[in-house]
Amino acid sequence: MSLDADEVARIAHLAGLAIDEADIPEYTTNLSNILELVEQMSSVDTAGIEPMAHPLELPQRLREDKVTETDQRELFQKCAPKVERGLYLVPQVIE
Question: Is residue 36 part of a domain?
Answer without folding.
Answer: yes
